Amino acid sequence: MSDVGMGSLQTCTDFSYTFEQFSLIIEQLLDQLSIPQFILYCHDYGGPVGFRLAVRHPLRVRSFIIQNSVVNFEGLGTPFDVFKALWEHPDARTQQEFAATVTSFDFTKKQYFTGACYPERVSPDGPYMDQMFLNRPGNREIQVALGYDYRKNVEQYPIWQQIGLSL
């Protein structure tokens, strides 16, 4: 299944690209499939989606598997500087700089190789596949919307930390 705005689906100009909206879609899917409890695998942007589900339905979440999802302010390292600039000044210039940065091939490669203990073991086709989707028409605007919305995740970190400790 492809995430709206992230995979092979066409973009929707009237769709609200927020982590809250993504979590509601996943929640509806889980309900439609009659899945009463689940283990969440949260990777990167999936973390904010999963934690929102856990806040709304703590008894349904059996546990978390978390990979590269930030749940504390200290985890917002240098790659998030471009996000922080967007949050402080969401004007056209900053939006353009954000979009240019997060959709660049250099930024995509860093997500694969920065911190990798064995970078030679990372499949070289991953960054190219991601970049192909990042280059789709309309995706820069989607990334700006998600980048700006990410500030709401930071506001939720204390709640998410408590949820994580309770499981």
From TrEMBL:
Signal peptide: none annotated. Coiled coil: none annotated. GO terms for molecular function: epoxide hydrolase activity. Keywords: Hydrolase. It holds the Pfam family Abhydrolase_1. It comes from the Bacteria. InterPro entries: AB_hydrolase_1, AB_hydrolase_fold, Haloalkane_dehalogenase. Residues 15-102 form the AB hydrolase-1 domain. This is Alpha/beta hydrolase. The lineage of its organism: Bacteria, Bacillati, Bacillota, Bacilli, Bacillales.
